[in-house]
Amino acid sequence: MNEIFRILEQDARKTPEQIATMTGIPLAQVKETIKKAESDRTILKYKTMVNWDKLGEEQVWALAEVKVAPQRDVGFDAIAERIYRFPEVRTVYLISGTYDLAVFVVGKTMHEVAGFVSEKLAPLEGVQGTVTHFLLKRYKEDGEIVDGEEGPKRVPIMP
Amino acid sequence: MKKRDLISKRVKDIPPSGIRKFFDIIASMDGVISLGVGEPDFVTPWHIREAGIYSIEKGYTSYTSNYGLLELREEIARYLKVRHSLDYDPERELLVTVGVSEGVDLAMRAILNPGDEVIIPDPSYVSYTSCTVLAGGVSVPVPTAIENDFKVKAQDIDKRINPRTKAILLGYPNNPTGAVMDREELLKVAEVAQRHSLVVISDEVYERLVYGVEHTCFASLPGMRERTILLGGFSKAYAMTGWRLGYAAATKEIIEAMMKIHQYTIMCAPTMAQMAAIKALKEGEDQVQEMVADYDQRRRVMVKGLNDIGLTCFEPQGAFYTFPSIKSTGLSSDEFAERLLLEERVAVVPGSTFGQCGEGYVRCCYATSMAEIEEALERMGNFVKRHRTR
To answer: The whole model's pTM is what?
Structure first.
């Protein structure tokens, strides 16, 4: 059944009909599985990866390493929630190592992102310190090579 | 002065490849979708490529042993043991070849005396017959048909055996049909081979590409290891066609004979390719399984699509080919392929390329992106609508 999700993860536009053909799973079962996954948030959402550089639209991304003090009973969850509720924050991970939360922030300008970190993120109660890294170039995003990988150079017809 | 023919009769007698003309047509066209390829659309997995690059950086640029790198032969021996419970001595019973193509040639030349006959299922990969003839043998086709999903029947092989018969060549999973042999029938073929003391050359280069069925390695059948030349390779499973690497596994006597030819014609397989292949065998399993899962999805789409547009297609269980019947169009397979290319810009290979029994069929390879498969099916559907006679 996980095959259905692997297909959708690669191409969310695949229809239940196509998925049924590809997997050999009956159509009704494919539809039912997807419906259930949508309602119980196994499928979080369907989205498109856009290369905004191609459209000439500037986006500034930064990774903010955030060191926080865990709180009694809730650990990191409460402070993580306070952070992820900001719309500027795109991704938040709790990680092991020298800091605690990896926070990906997006803005229109470097100034805007820096402002968000220094005025909204850093002053939060429980945040002990931040280190901000600005993203310079995307090579590979979520498994996809941004410039596109060259395919094999095949001879078009071969016995 | 009498004009002298510069080309040997034996070579002249081999008919030119029927697909040559398609090259020229494709070269003159834009926007062709090719289902005519015979190799994966994946690039070799990066860690395998990286191993090849590293070997060059480290200066592995000289010859290896004629047999191939011992480390590679040991890995192949381990693979055959784990996968098929076969024991081959890596020192003397394995030979690393330049693809299975070389393996077929070596096998023929090592075992055939002039006039010896080789029984070959029809349709089959194009080199089998030519290599037989080039080695001085005679190829004896044994028909296979869609009614039996293009699997060869032991009784049909048995019928064609005479005192000149030396060998049977099995190429399963099959190119062009995608047929996979059942163990049951292979046991019957083994019995025939035993009874008539024949060599069995088993080209199993597509062995990893099977869908929902088990591949039976012919050499693993009772008593068959002693009379089988098992040919395997890296091209299809690891998407390594351009590296040109395969292997032969057989008894010491047969490998010794094949090695004699190999050492004078090839010397050894390319060293960097051998280094990459070690990596493939050691760490490539996950990628193989991912690729197989991917092919399987496309296979289902292709088979359903072809049947939906009226090109009857049995469900192939191996390789990455479908072999639909084009009889509903009334065209010959060659005409079908040529017109389809000219009218709809989709390239397929005429079934007749692979033997007389391939007439009335075309080979469509699904080792291409899903988007291209879907587009090709749509174009083929338009073509069939126009040409349908029944």
So the answer is: 0.93
Compute, in degrees rounded to 10, the torsion defined by CA atoms A47, B290, B39, B109.
180
DSSP A75: B
Interface predicted TM-score of the whole assembly (ipTM), two decimals: 0.85
Cα–Cα separations (whole angstroms), residue B30 to A121, B23, B26, B369: 55, 13, 8, 18
Instruction: State the pLDDT confidence band at A112, using cuts at 50, 70 and 90.
Output: very high
Provide the 10 A C-beta neighbour count for residue B351.
27
* pLDDT for B1: 74
Instruction: State the smallest CA–CA distance between residue A94 and chain B in angstroms.
Output: 29
Q: Which residue of A has its CA nearest to B345?
A: A156
Residue A153 pLDDT > 90, yes or no?
no
Is the pLDDT score of B97 beyond 70? yes
Per DSSP, the three-state class of B165 is strand
Distance from CA of A159 to the nearest CA of B (A): 6
> What three-state secondary structure class fits A52?
helix
Chain B residue numbers touching A26 (CB-CB < 8 A): none
**Which residue type sits at B77?**
A
User: Does residue B302 belong to the interface with chain A, where contact is any CB pair within 8 Å?
Assistant: no
**B300 in contact with A at a CB cutoff of 8 Å?**
yes
What pLDDT shows up at residue A148?
Answer: 82
B99 Ramachandran zone, left/alpha/beta (phi>0; psi -120 to 50)? left
Q: Which of B5, B301, B359 is CA-nearest to residue A24? A: B301
**Cβ-based contacts of A20 with chain B (< 8 Å):** none
Residue A23 CB-half CA count within 13 A:
22
User: Which ranges constitute the DSSP H helices of A41-145?
Assistant: 77-84, 110-116
Q: Give the three-state DSSP class for A62.
A: strand
Q: In chain B, count of helices (H) and strands (E)?
A: 13, 12
Q: What is the count of residue pairs from A and B with beta carbons less than 8 Å apart?
A: 62
Contacts of B377 in chain A (CB under 8 A): none
The pLDDT of residue B390 is: 67
Quote the CA–CA distance of B11 and A152 in Å, as a whole number: 32
Averaged pLDDT for residues B283-287? 95
Interface contact A22-B297, CB threshold 8 A: yes
Inter-chain CB proximity B37 and A155 less than 8 Å:
yes
In this predicted structure, what is the pLDDT of residue B298?
97
- Whether residue B65 is predicted with pLDDT greater than 90 in this model: the reply is yes
